[in-house]
């Protein structure tokens, strides 16, 4: 039913054949037919398409896609080329600039990060226009929890960045003895001052990767 086109296909075969995913698929058929839903149905699995399982160095976990027109394209926190960066993404860029001196880019498309090994995963991969969390509890969580568990099982260590309550709730799924689990407030303007700014996650991630013999992420865009 789903063809990612890389090593995720074999790893997620059982999850895509599960009753919970079949039920989700029926729900999505109706939603896409009768409502305005983001991202485009052909972009839903872009995070997995751009970042194969064996290439993952860092996982950044978001909540659900942007719910405004023309923004979401299947990568958490990223927007399509030519679309202004939303406030959460601007705050991410500010933190990167302070931590690592990375210049604030002129666009918000994070495809380069995805190709660098940064899995930009949301806990729900679709959303109804203008209604955040509208596809929560419809079956996406079973799939994305399964993805997180598969990543946790991988021998090669990686970094998980969990921002906000929804993402932090996934910490029990991750083997913290093998992987680095970093937690902070969500980068949205509503919570930026309560623990996102100054979190140090990008510097810590690259230090961890380097210490494990893995090439650090080039965060410039």
Can you characterise this structure?
By secondary structure, this protein is an alpha/beta fold. Helices cover 36% and strands 11% of the residues. It is built from nine helices and six strands, in the order αααβαβααββαβαβα. It has helices at residues 8-11, 13-17, 19-34, 46-50, 87-100, 111-116, 140-153, 165-168, 201-211, and strands spanning 37-38, 58-62, 118-122, 127-128, 159-163, 180-184. The strands form two sheets. It has a four-stranded parallel beta sheet. The chain has a two-stranded antiparallel sheet with strand order 1-4. The radius of gyration is 17 Å and the shape is globular. The termini are far apart. The mean pLDDT is 95.
Task: Explain the layout of strands and helices.
Layout: H1 8-11, H2 13-17, H3 19-34, E1 37-38, H4 46-50, E2 58-62, H5 87-100, H6 111-116, E3 118-122, E4 127-128, H7 140-153, E5 159-163, H8 165-168, E6 180-184, H9 201-211
Parallel strand pairs: 2-3, 2-5, 5-6
Antiparallel strand pairs: 1-4
């Amino acid at each position: 039913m789903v063809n990612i086109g890389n090593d995720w296909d074999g790893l997620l075969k059982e999850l895509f054949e599960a009753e919970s995913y079949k039920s989700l698929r029926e729900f999505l058929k109706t939603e896409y037919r009768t409502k305005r839903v983001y991202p485009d149905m052909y972009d839903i699995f872009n995070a997995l398409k751009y970042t194969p399982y064996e290439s993952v160095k860092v996982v950044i976990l978001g909540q659900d896609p942007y719910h405004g027109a023309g923004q979401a394209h299947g990568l958490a926190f990223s927007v399509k080329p030519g679309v202004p960066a939303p406030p959460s993404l601007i705050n991410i860029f500010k933190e990167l600039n302070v931590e690592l001196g990375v210049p604030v880019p002129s666009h918000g498309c994070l495809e380069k990060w995805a190709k660098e090994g940064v899995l930009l995963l949301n806990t729900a991969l679709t959303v109804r226009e203008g209604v955040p969390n509208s596809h929560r509890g419809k079956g996406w969580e079973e799939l994305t929890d399964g993805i997180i568990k598969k990543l946790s099982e991988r021998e090669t260590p990686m970094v998980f960045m969990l921002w906000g309550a929804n993402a932090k709730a996934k910490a029990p799924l991750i083997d913290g003895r093998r992987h680095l689990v970093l937690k902070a407030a969500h980068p949205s303007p509503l919570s930026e001052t309560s623990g996102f700014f100054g979190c140090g996650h990008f510097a810590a991630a690259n230090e961890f990767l380097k210490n494990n013999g893995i090439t650090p992420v080039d965060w410039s865009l």
